[in-house]
């Protein structure tokens, strides 16, 4: 059975508690990362192929562990697929260097899906500090794939300045918008918003103008729910621990904010639960690109308030309605954004962008579920049967005085990020790329790990090792 290793936090079918998700930071500090990783996982899950989550182990491998990790990947997998977001940025440099070091020594195909640059909206090149590592990373990947998929035009321009032209780079947008098929359309459910309209809001905690819009909307729209995405916000919801950074007081990032006090916040740990919630909303808006894409991907109208290249290049590529967060008036009503939102271009763009994305995968010799004979309805059916945790709400669910006492006890019990890292009971610790499946049996997440296949002789090439492994599996079957 072909096996694909995918860079992702966890297997889509693994339900983790909020506490375990926080303790191991399984979504790499931003829950939006789950959306595009799971979308790629789903698309590659063709019958007869097993897709295995890396648990981000590939990002953390140290030099001392590198030979063993290389041997495992080369002998047990047929491809390594790497969904990425804005990876060309200073804070991701360490992970990118480790990935580059690993990729150079692999002898299987390596395909990067959706990588982006963090730069200004008019940028034509990466910041000088990022050029060398970006060049080394792309060179390593292109030695093992036909093309690299990037998020948008800004990234394409920046990489062209490094010598990577259209023969190396393909603009593919965000995989999250392709998870539900070619015929995705967004239609407004109502002529306009009313005070009773169910709304979802999202926010990057540096955008003060948009925070003011959300604060005013909180008063006017009692059915507005704020959807946070960062690990600090999850920590506040679970443990009542204040945000680690000093933020503008306008931000919904303090325990006395009305959205906390009124229990009007939901943090989602799994895409399917997030999607179900947004499918019941009439409108979503805010600065979080994946917060809005999550709504659009289930047909719910959304309006982006963009503030950097990460968001604008994706909005431009997919024709997502947006305005500049820096230029919008802080007294703007969400009803005005709803009125502005026109999805004609988005709906027209979707089939073309979808087909282009599939062609990119095919250029890289990746099979997908939209090819005739590769359909896999079991993926969605299996997800629907799993009891994933509900969205995490505010701790303010009883009287204010009693809740303050509860928060005090929780803060005492908690102990901070160090306690999270040292937590053993109830915390998720990914195995190295998950358990090996028993030969001829589809992997089941809750099942105990099967006995590993016999190791191939040391010194043989990866293709020979994989051939021996497949032969052994067929013999056992």
From TrEMBL:
Polysaccharide pyruvyl transferase domain boundaries: 78-308
GO molecular function: transferase activity
InterPro entries: Polysacch_pyruvyl_Trfase
Keywords of this entry: Transferase
Pfam families the record matches: PS_pyruv_trans
Protein name according to UniProt: Polysaccharide pyruvyl transferase family protein
């Amino acid at each position: 059975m072909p096996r694909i290793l995918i860079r992702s936090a966890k297997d889509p079918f693994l339900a983790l508690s909020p506490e375990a998700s926080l303790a191991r930071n399984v979504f790499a500090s931003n829950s939006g990362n789950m959306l595009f990783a799971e979308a790629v996982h789903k698309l590659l899950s063709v019958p007869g192929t097993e897709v295995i989550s890396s648990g981000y182990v590939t990002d953390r491998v140290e030099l001392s562990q590198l030979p063993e990790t290389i041997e495992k990947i080369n002998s047990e997998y047929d491809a390594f697929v790497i969904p990425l977001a804005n990876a060309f940025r200073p804070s991701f440099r360490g992970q990118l260097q480790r990935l580059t070091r690993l990729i150079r020594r692999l002898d299987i195909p390596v395909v990067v899906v959706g990588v982006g640059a963090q730069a200004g909206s008019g940028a034509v090149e990466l910041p000088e500090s990022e050029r060398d590592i970006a060049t080394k990373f792309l060179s390593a990947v292109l030695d093992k794939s036909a093309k690299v998929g990037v998020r948008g035009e800004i990234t394409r321009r920046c990489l062209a300045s490094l010598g990577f032209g259209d023969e190396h780079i393909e603009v593919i947008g965000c995989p999250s918008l392709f998870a539900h098929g070619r015929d995705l359309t967004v239609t407004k459910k109502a002529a306009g918003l009313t005070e009773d309209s169910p709304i979802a809001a999202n926010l990057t905690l540096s955008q003060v103008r948009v925070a003011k819009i959300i604060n005013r909307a909180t008063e006017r729209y009692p059915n507005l729910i704020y959807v946070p995405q960062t690990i600090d916000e999850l920590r506040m919801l679970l443990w009542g621990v204040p945000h680690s950074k000093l933020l503008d007081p306008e931000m919904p990032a303090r325990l006395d904010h009305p959205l906390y006090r009124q229990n009007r916040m939901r943090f989602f740990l799994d895409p399917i639960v997030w999607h179900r919630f947004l499918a019941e909303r009439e409108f979503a808006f805010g600065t979080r690109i994946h917060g809005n894409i999550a709504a659009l991907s289930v047909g719910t109208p959304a309006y982006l308030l963009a503030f950097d290249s990460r968001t604008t290049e994706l909005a431009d590529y997919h024709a997502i309605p947006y305005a500049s967060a820096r230029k919008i008036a802080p007294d703007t009503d969400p009803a005005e954004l709803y009125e502005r939102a026109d999805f004609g271009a988005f709906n027209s763009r979707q089939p073309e962008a979808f087909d282009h994305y599939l062609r990119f995968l095919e250029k890289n010799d990746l099979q997908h579920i939209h090819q005739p004979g590769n359909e896999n309805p079991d993926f969605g059916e299996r997800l629907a049967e799993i009891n994933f945790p509900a969205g995490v709400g505010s701790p303010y669910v009883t009287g204010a005085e009693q809740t303050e006492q509860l928060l005090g006890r929780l803060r005492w019990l908690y102990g901070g990020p160090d306690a999270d890292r040292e937590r053993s009971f109830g915390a998720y610790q990914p195995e190295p790329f998950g358990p090996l499946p028993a030969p001829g049996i589809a992997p089941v997440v809750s099942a105990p790990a099967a006995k590993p296949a016999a190791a191939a002789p040391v010194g043989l090439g990866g293709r020979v090792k994989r051939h021996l492994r497949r032969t052994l599996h067929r013999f056992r079957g």
